[in-house]
Each structure stands twice: as C-alpha cells, then as structure tokens.
C-alpha cells in the first residue's frame, strides 16, 4: 500500500516523513498491524529508502531521524519526543519504556552501520543502480557525470557546424560526405522557409535569452538558433524516442535520406490541406443547417461565435478562431441566442434543441481540426530540423563516448532499459541491497521518467505487503524545467496502486504567523478561482494550530503606478524598478526602527540581475 499525503508548506510534512521512517525502523507489520520488531533484527534500516530532492534536504533528514531516535531512547536529557504517544498507539498500545528500548537499539544499529543509512536524492539512488549495470550498458564503471546539459549541447552543435565547414577533407562519395550535403540542404531549406514566413533566419547566432525555449515553438519574427532547438534533446519525451528518429534517418542508403525528409514534408502538406477542407466542410454545414431554420448567413452576429465559423466557411481555416473560443461556444458560457442578430417579428429568435446539438457536434469537429492543424503546421515548418536533430544527437553521443561521461539527463533513460527489462529481485541482487519500503518527499517535483523507473520497485514492495509513503504538494512544483510533472501526484499514483489518502494535516500551518496565513488563504484562493486552478489549489486554505503567538505577523501590498510618464512597456518596466529601488532603503530603515535585525529581513527578486541591483541600491 502507498500512503499519499498532500500537504501545504508549513503543515508538518518533514515531521510526518520522519515519523513514518521511525515507525518502519522500529516496527514490523504482521496481519495488517504494526508491532515492535524483534531485538535481534539489526539490519532493518538497510531495507528502507527515504528519497529527498536535494543533497541539503538529505543531510537534514538524516540529522532529524538520528536526533528523534536519540530523544526517543532517552539519551537527550530534559526532552520528550512528540512521536512517543503515537508510536505507542501504532505498535499496539505498548509502553513508552518498550519504545525507548527499541529506539536505542535501532539508533546503535544505525550509527554502527551508517553507510547503509539509505536517505538520498533520487538522482543518487539511480546513479548507484546505474553504475552497478555499467558493463551491461557498455559503459566503464568510473564514468563521469556532466551536470551542465547546455555545455554538452553547445559542444554537439559546434562539432556539427565545424564538420560542415570542413567538407573538403572528406572523401567525395563517402557516407560522411553525403551526410554533410544533406545537412546543408536542410539548413538552406529551413532558412528559405523562415525568410518566406517573415521570420528571423540567422540560426547560427547565440540565443537571445537564457530562458530560450527547449522546443522550436518560436513565434513570428523571433530568432531561432541551433542551440535552442538542440535543447529539445533534453526533454524526456524526445529522449525516449530519439533512437526511433535516428533509426528512421539511418534506414536505407544515405543518398536517399534527403528524399525521405522531402516525402515526409509532402505528406504533412497533404494532411494540412485535408484538415483545412474538413474544417471548411464542417463550417459550411453549420451555416446550412442554421439557414434551414431561417437563420440566414446575413443574420450572423458580428460579436457572436458564429462569425468565426462564417470566416472558415469562406475558405479561411487559418482565421484567429482558437480552441478556447470553440470551447466557450460548446459550453453554456455563450448561449446560441447570441449567435444571431434580432430578426423581424415573425422570424425565429433561437435555434431548435436538435439543431443546436448538431451544430455543437460540428463545432467539436472544427476544434479537433484546429488542434491537428496546429500540430501539422508546426511539424511542416520544422521538418528539415528532423534530420539536423539526428545529426546533433550523433555528435553529442560522440562527445560523451570520447570523454567517458553521461549527462545527468541520460540517467532516467539508461535506467529504464535496466529496470524495465529485469525483475526487481535481480536488480536488488546485483546492487547488493534489498529495499522493502520507500518514502518519497517532494513528489510533485518527480518527472514522469523517474516515476516510470520507480514504479517497478514500488510494485515489488506492495506485492510483499510493505508500506510506502509519498508526500507532495502540487502547488509547490518548481522544477518543471527538469520535467517535473505534478499530475503524477494528482492522478497517476492511484491508477496503479492501492492508495491511502491522508490529508489530516494539510489545513494546519505550524510555521507562519496568523496574519500571513490569513493573507495567503484569501489571496491564493481568489487567484486560483480566477485562473481556473481550483483543483491544483484545492488545499490552499490553511488553519492555525491551537497555540499562542508572540507575533501576529504583518502583510502589506503596495500598488505602484509606473504608467505615468512612460510611453511604452519597456519604459514602464524601468520606471517600476526605479520606484521600487528608491523606496527600498527607507522601508528597511523603518523595519529596523521597529526592533528587527538585518538578519530578520529578506529581499526576494525574480532574477539574479535584479538582486544585484537591490544590493547596489542598499549599499
């Protein structure tokens, strides 16, 4: 079974994780209930793995567990453990003395075998397995790990471009020469398409921003570079399919590779035209069925949803009608009565229910056409990059092999080949440990690939009757740039495992002052409602524990008008910064005058650059 705890910040997640670890360490589950383990069992800690997200959190978790075991065992004078009462209850109403004795024995076992105290980051745990199977993956055991994915991308791109520039040193009819000719052709075709579409075409420049996209979804007139595109190689979706792409590119004679790419582009063009025709046909049917009930085309309201359908009917499937507007038309937000102008006294004012139902079916078909059209057009625009992607990947692989290293991002895909192809007991036998229970913290920051690698281990644990714990909060998912997927916590775990949902502590904030909690409750509840994120923020409202506070806390929000004397958005942003920086020193002095110390004050900014500007202003 997996116990899932969804808890907001400050609600005692670390407390709960520590408690569950100690319960698993001291107890054994028999017939669905826990009892204290036999005192001769000295290796229980070896079979528990607690997973955190950072090395710092790992150190803090180990320290917390050792500290609580010390208090439970009575070795810290003058302190009592908040865990004692619950442990006595969960172990079948045993006495505190029995728990104290078990805690002391577990503490001694743990300290004398500290190497096998399994609290680690998920990356460290996966690396341990990966190194054990290095020979199976045709890697050396002492390979290095490159943490900077961007560096590997730049090396791959630079080597690729450098090779294009040195074609003269390559045998004319060799496979390498044909690869170079194909690559140059794809680059020319891509640049030509960019010019015809009015976009920037210099794909050899450096990225304009560090926040450049990891995929080639650039809007019109936005620069697109090789480095931008190559970053898509770091996404989990592409990493799982890159072998298939390369196999497709390598299928057959290199001489005909360019023809395969061109054939693919022609097929995409045909699909685009077919989808456009389907959208026009569906739109024409809508106009026709409305006309049958007396709602002629000239009665269509210019402010209603059908005006877009009218535009599609006149052979304009690329009009600005988005899927959101189509969804609104299908919902109750926009009644069909607003689709038409008011007619003469005897003319119908609303469509029949049967016709509305038929029209909505056709609108749904148009929405699907718009979705397909968007995908096909993006593929069509970047089709030549398919070949270039395979080439850049080839040079990145060469760089890794020559330097005997893997990227940290490689870990999940390599591990998938091991865990998914082997029985879990065999994996444990090779690694030299046998894990029975898993406690995973900050689960909202787990990626889908990491989850796929953890699933077989959790399946094995649950099959043996062991308990596991997952703790997370979708609202705190901050590692999406590393493919974190909060939907795993929301819905995925329950698809595969028996889940015990535990939200008992989610509404209590033990960390913040009352006024801060009240402000957060009101602000984020309203914001979630406005943005349609109620599901993700379902547990955003917190309560306060029954305790006294030395300070009630204080929250003040100030609105700054930066529009005055600013003619454009850039000027307004600079004006805003200027006003904020000017006010900041006075605000800090005011806080200090009320008895606070410098160490009590934190200034948060959106970027390091803004942080440097704040420091300069204060000093």
Question: Keyphrases for this structure?
Answer:
single chain, 619 residues, alpha/beta, six-stranded parallel β-sheet, two-stranded antiparallel ribbon, 22 helices, 10 strands, 6% strand
Structure characterization notes:
The protein has 619 residues and is α/β, with parallel strands linked by helices. Helices cover 52% and strands 6% of the residues. A six-stranded parallel beta sheet has the order 5-4-8-9-1-10, sandwiched between helices. The chain has a two-stranded antiparallel sheet with strand order 2-3. Strand 8 (437-440), helix 18 (448-463) and strand 9 form a beta-alpha-beta unit.
Could you give a short description of this structure?
This protein has 619 residues and is an alpha/beta fold. The chain has 22 helices and 10 strands.
SSE diagram, text form:
Elements lengths: L1 E5 L6 H14 E4 L2 E4 L11 E5 L2 H18 L11 H7 L5 H17 L6 E3 H11 L11 E3 L2 H17 L9 H22 L29 H5 L5 H4 L2 H8 L7 H36 L13 H8 L9 H8 L22 H29 L1 H20 L2 E3 L3 H9 L4 H8 L5 E4 L7 H16 L4 E5 L14 H10 L2 E4 L11 H18 L37 H25 L14 H11 L1
Parallel strand pairs: 1-9, 1-10, 4-5, 4-8, 6-7, 8-9
Antiparallel strand pairs: 2-3
Helix pairs in contact: 1-2, 2-4, 5-16, 6-15, 7-15, 10-15, 11-12, 11-14, 11-15, 13-14, 16-18, 21-22
